Write a sequence for this structure.
């Protein structure tokens, strides 16, 4: 009997201890999760048991609900108050703008911002125009270049000379002139030679020779057949624009032995 | 953020405008240039057709090296049909010149034509322009294998014959005499 009583007394005393003891931090966290409905099944059972058996747990739960209710009420009242203030502010500002427009005129967009954007547009348009003009000028130079005759060398009358080593050259005027061998008679070129043959470009599969006509008519264009040795030399040679600069004209036979 | 958004929108629109204006400018200039390319030479188009006369000449009996100083005194055997070319042919180091073939072709300006030469070679030409004084002619002389012997664009007097030749063998050469004369407009 005593034992039973003591057992009952022990359980009652333990319960009294539980009710009187404050909640531990762990128990408070459990109750917070239970209040927020974030507990699993086991945690939920433990929390419910704690609430049944612990007075402080019940009070803690009630305090949590009170705090949440109070916060919600404050927020709702605050939003309602803000909405009322916002519309009031808008209407007040409209009135103020109307009054200001009477004295100061209507409000216009910022000049500073507009000039910035217009400057950007103008600079881009200028850039586009300048680049277009540059491309056009380059295209004109490439496709329709100036035909200057100042740089045209003259092959002397009555002489022969090896013009190129099989390359191509531009704007060579070949016509009768009174120049001696080896001289660049630029003045003759500039004054114009109506009988001169002009060459825009020339390609040949061998060395070219120009044989001048003593009557001042067009020269004879002779393409020499390449020998195997000459083919190897020509492959390394670079195209020569001015025949007189590269090979001084000499009285040589163009059918040479080599 | 609003300002950045506005700037980016303006940049894209203006960039598109710049690109369109640039492309249109380039296209316009190229069209203008292509239409007036040959006008820059100052050559008019007095006639619409050109008559091209091509003579194929075989040159033999090469002159020896020692006789360079005696070129003017040597005797040259030149066909009667080539008498108008005598001063030029005598400049070449050959003593015998024989006319192999002659062909005449009438074609419009900038029209291309191809002549088959007797030895299997090809001569393609295109008159670029022709007035009563000057003619511009593109020539392409190809050998039997189709490779270029000579490819050139030349300008010469319309009453002149252009001679061009090449070595056909060790002791002979092949010469083309090309003359272009205008066909007056009706």
């Amino acid at each position: 009997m005593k034992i039973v009583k003591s057992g009952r007394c022990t359980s009652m005393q333990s319960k009294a201890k539980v009710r009187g003891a404050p909640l531990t931090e762990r128990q408070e966290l459990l109750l917070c999760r239970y209040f927020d409905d974030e507990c699993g099944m086991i945690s939920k059972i433990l929390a419910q048991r704690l609430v049944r058996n612990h007075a402080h747990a019940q009070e803690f739960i009630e305090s949590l609900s009170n705090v949440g209710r109070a916060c919600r009420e404050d927020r709702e009242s605050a939003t309602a108050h803000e909405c009322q203030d916002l519309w009031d502010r808008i209407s007040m500002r409209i009135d103020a703008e109307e009054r200001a427009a009477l004295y100061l005129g209507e409000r216009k967009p910022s000049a500073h911002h507009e000039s910035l954007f217009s400057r950007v547009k103008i600079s881009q348009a200028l850039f586009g125009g300048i680049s277009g003009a540059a491309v056009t000028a380059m295209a004109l130079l490439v496709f329709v270049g100036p035909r200057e005759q100042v740089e045209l060398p003259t092959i002397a009358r009555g002489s022969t000379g090896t013009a190129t080593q099989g390359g191509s050259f531009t704007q060579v005027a070949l016509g009768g002139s009174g120049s001696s061998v080896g001289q660049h008679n630029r003045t003759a070129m500039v004054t114009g030679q109506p009988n001169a043959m002009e060459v825009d470009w020339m390609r040949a599969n061998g060395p070219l020779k120009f044989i001048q006509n003593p009557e001042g008519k067009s020269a004879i264009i002779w393409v020499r057949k390449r020998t195997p040795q000459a083919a190897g030399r020509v492959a390394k040679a670079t195209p020569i624009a001015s025949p007189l600069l590269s090979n001084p004209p000499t009285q040589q036979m163009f059918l040479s032995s080599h | 953020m609003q300002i950045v958004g506005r700037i980016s929108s303006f940049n894209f629109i203006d960039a598109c405008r710049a690109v369109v204006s640039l492309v249109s400018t380039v296209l316009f200039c190229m069209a203008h240039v292509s239409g007036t390319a040959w006008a820059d030479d100052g050559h008019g188009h007095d006639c619409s057709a050109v008559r091209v006369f091509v003579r194929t000449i075989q040159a033999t009996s090469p002159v020896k090296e020692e006789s360079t100083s005696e070129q003017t005194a040597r005797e040259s055997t030149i066909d009667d049909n080539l008498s108008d070319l005598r001063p030029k042919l005598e400049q070449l180091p050959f003593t015998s010149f024989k006319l192999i073939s002659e062909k005449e072709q009438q074609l419009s300006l900038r029209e291309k034509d191809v002549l088959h030469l007797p030895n299997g070679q090809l001569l393609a030409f295109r008159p670029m322009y022709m007035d009563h004084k000057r003619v511009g002619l593109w020539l392409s002389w190809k050998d039997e294998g189709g490779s270029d012997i000579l490819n050139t664009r030349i300008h010469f007097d319309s009453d002149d014959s252009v001679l061009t030749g090449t070595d056909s063998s060790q002791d002979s050469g092949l010469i083309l005499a090309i003359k272009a004369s205008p066909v007056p407009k009706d």
The beta strands of chain A are 160-164, 172-174, 197-204, 208-211, 220-223. Residues 150 and 190 of chain A are 6 Å apart (CA to CA).
